[in-house]
Known about the structure:
Beta-lactamase; five-stranded antiparallel beta sheet
Amino acid sequence: MLSIFFISTIFIVSWIDFAAINNLKNYTPPIPSQLLDRKGRVISTYFKDKRIVVKINDLPVYLPQAFLAMEDNEFYSHYGINISSIIRALMVNFLSGDIRQGGSTITQQLTKIILTDRSRTYVRKIKEAFISLYLELTFSKDEILNLYLNELYLGHGNYGIEAASHFYFNKSAKEISIGEAAILATLPSAPNYYSPVRNPHGSQQKTLTALLNMVDLNMITLSQATAEYEKLLDYYSTLQLSPTESAFGSREDLAPYFTEYMRQILENELGKENLYSKGYKIYTCLDIDHQNIAQKVLWEQLKELNNQTRAQPFKNYLKFSDEYGDSIKLIRSAFDLPDFKIKKKYLVLKSQLYLYNELLENLEILNMATGLNENIQQLMDDSRKNNPYLLDTIPVQGALIEMDNATGEVTSMVGGLPFNATNQINRAVQMKRQPGSTFKPILYAAAIDQQKITAASLFVDTPNIFLDIDGDFWIPENYSGGFRGFITVREALTYSTNMVSIAIAREVGIKNLIPQMAKELNVKENDIPTNLTVALGSYEVSPLQMTKTFALFPRGGYSIEPTFIKKILDHENKMVKDYSSKSKEPEQIISRATAAIMTDLLKNVVNEGTGKVVRKVGYNGFAAGKTGTTNNFKDAWFVGFNERYTSAVWIGYDQPTKTLGSGQAGGAIAAPVWAKFQFYTQPYRQKEEPYVLEGDEVKITICKSTGKLPTPDCRETITELFISGTEPVSTEETINNNSGSTINNEKSTPEKKHLYEDLY
Length: 760
């Protein structure tokens, strides 16, 4: 009676789960969400446990047979539980004094996976049996087997045969061979132990058992089993997956920095659990074609820069050897010193560099594929750690980001060197650095828009000494090292003269310019410090921020908000969120005339000034932009645009105190990346189109030396753009000599000025 009461109680308790069984007809397992580009191509997926649902009718017949051969060869003849298996398991457990075997059918395994807890108790086993019986009454055998094959765990974060097939064989379950089906069938009992990646030897032995079981059950012939096993020997010998690899790590990700950036946004938008399980289709603004090129051109440049950095000790050794080698020999002979064969030392170091850059990674992969010899791996690890000439492995980093001028859609985003476990800072959006001279267009636009200067205004480019608030000297210099005397604003921006930028800030008053610059940057006025160093780019910004600000010029002065997502659909293609309706109404930040003038000035920078490397690289389409380099070559920038896109390139170290090295300026290392990016993404834009006036600006002829209407004595005339009403109406010569000095050559004695607001 007690036993009947006990069993009845378990049955009643189990009834709670029977309602869940009825819902299995509409059961939808967790589905990864897809991140798609603007053309609907898959960038990456978001999931916790990788699972791809497949229908049993679409599978080769031998695939489910392999699982039946290993897990439940009487599946089609029992009613959810196998009495003989249960009795055998009970005997083993009784004799061992512990639960060693479960005697589970495939139906019971499915029950355990979906409907019951995983505890190994007799109560759970009895409950599981009742639910399995009810499951058999509710579903057909094929439906149960279909659910099972899509739900079981097969190692390395893969759930279901489709995800596992992609992971282990890089193909769909619909395409795998008999031998590959046998490998998968060995995994349910102990996926970690029998993984062909973690335990190739154990996997081979177990797979042979699976093939022989299939022969015994007349599912395949002995000759088929023999041929399939021989094929698998090739599979095991060429397997290159790391034992620590997982479904998450091996997922396709065409834009990892963008994927991670979007993950943080989407977890807030959709909910963390929903993002990983609801199968959303997230259409983003990224363009995979542009992204691939952005990664290629930036990574190539960074690799070259890092190779140069690592090779520097070798170059120093060789130079030392060439210049002082003979003297060292004499000194060594005179004082009986040990031989110092410096050229041989150089060759050793050069070979170490080649090993580090070109061979080490491939050797590690080869070692892993052929036997995982721990001693060899340790030797390679030591070669990294113990090489005194490779200890300074802090790499040069960079960022590239692109935005569509018309829509604000972010079409490319690269946040640094290839994304990995130790390199995940997205420098395109997360890092703020001083922009150097790329800030000057922001200053110039503010002054022109307030009609305080024109593109033809004359200033004196001459040396000055300033005092900071602590009484220290600040002596700004031009990158070229010299000074140009009297020059126009156009020339000052073209050749990036620092003293004219400071003179403009002093002439107009930095306090008067900050409100307009804050609008251009979309920041608070209090964020920008009121000192003259701002004129040279001391205010820190991100590449995304600079891209958005420079987009004001091709957009006719209208603001734009960067957008990353177009729309989100659910797994049935129903609209979840439409982001097109959330776009912010653009605001006129600078006048259309100012935008047109700045566009023309920045075009001049590319065609004649510090950015002319863009033309040398070979990009001949319309281009306007500005180079930037910070003190001691710590940061190199180029921000520019064409008719369709605006993009920014930054190169530097994560540590803001570390220098790239002499000569590594924005024009030398950042502008070429920008130019190559334009060249490959927009090959159709290889002819510069005529400049078109954008606003109420006027174009008139002036005398180059005065910035005014030409007199009969004017030696050279040029055409210049002006906001209507600011154009010169006389031939009178007016020069903005803010320094108070009439000396205009680089041998002038500089005059001391104060840097901070209380003295200007």
